[in-house]
Amino acid sequence: MKRYAPLFVALGAISYGIPGSLFKMARAAQVTDSLLLSMTFLIAFIIFSLARRLLKPDDRYAADRKLKWLVIISGSSMGFTNTFYLLSLAYVPVAIAAVMMMQSVWLSIAISCLIHRQFPTVTQAISVITILIGTVLATGLFPLHQNVSWKGMGLSFLSALAYALTIQFTGNVGANLHPLTKAQLMSGGALIVILVIWLPTILPVHHLITGIQWGGITSFFAMLLPLTCFSFFMPHLSLGIGPIISSLELPSSVVFAFILLGEAVTISQIVGVCLIILAVILSNILPFRLHGQYQQIRP
Predict the structure, then answer these.
(1) Which residues are 141's β-sheet partners?
(2) Nearest Cα to 215, choosing from 198, 236, 234, 232?
(3) Which of 4, 23, 59, 260 is packed most tightly, with the most Cβ within 10 A?
(4) DSSP state for residue 212 in the 8-state scheme
């Protein structure tokens, strides 16, 4: 399984880049945001619940009640992340929303430094600066070629913040659970948040069948495929490799927005995306390389 882990994690990361385009396509098909998100997470929760029933009893349950609720809470962040992300797509292109989502990389660094009351390392500082430069280029802020919606960028930034907070506080929670059990609990937490936020606005329901169809498609690419790939194969990757492969979500979002929506892609956007991916690689690989060299030369 370790041999195929990078391939399937990459598949899950690429899958995460598709829902942004699907959200816009569903909206064009007159599916409301509340119906789309509700169906997306409800379908994922039902399928993971059915799959969990097929497991052996020892794998099916989380023995520690506290651990169970921590996994559910960690999954709830997906509800906030997708809510802010979907709302931002009403104001900005998918590519820009995806770039703003990648701010979760430096936000995680900043939150970690605040929690541990320490300054960032030189590598972390360089990574943050590189991400910010890449963001300016990828969003078209310099040179300013278009009218940028600050509301849309703010919403997608909140999506990144929600994701970064989850990475810091619940990233390793539930590592000993069966992947399907963990996926079902996380999807349940996300569903709870989605229903609390969106259920009051879901009625009256229009285009229900269309909403279920689009919900099934987005559920597959936003929840079922990536959660399955990450839950089963991410633990088999070496330290630092997972975040690097996961950064494929960004170019995937840009490519699929170009293919499915016909969104324009500029040279500055491509350069900006490359810089952000370089920063992810820098922040995850260099510390381990330096540590390894130090261990070799240490007497």
Answers:
(1) 144
(2) 198
(3) 23
(4) H
| Angstrom distance (rounded) from CA 264 to CA 75 | 33
Coil vs helix vs strand at 107: helix
**What is the amino acid identity at position 188?**
G
| Separation between Cα atoms, residue 40 and residue 213, nearest integer Å | 9
Question: Quick one: which of 176, 184, 191 has its CA closest to 77?
Answer: 191
Displacement of CA 167 from its chain's centroid (Å): 10
Q: What are phi and psi of 190, to 5 degrees?
A: -65, -40
- Based on the number of CB atoms within 10 Å of its own CB, is 296 exposed (0-12), middle (13-18) or buried (19 or more)? exposed
Q: Which amino acid is at 239?
A: L
pLDDT digits over 55-114, tens only?
A: 887 777 766 788 888 888 888 888 898 999 999 999 988 988 888 888 888 888 788 788
Its sign, for the CA torsion 175, 176, 178, 183, is: negative
What pLDDT digit, counting tens, does each position of 206-222 carry?
888 999 999 999 999 99
CA pseudo-torsion sign 231, 233, 234, 236 = positive
Answer whether 194's CB lies under 8 Å from 41's CB.
yes
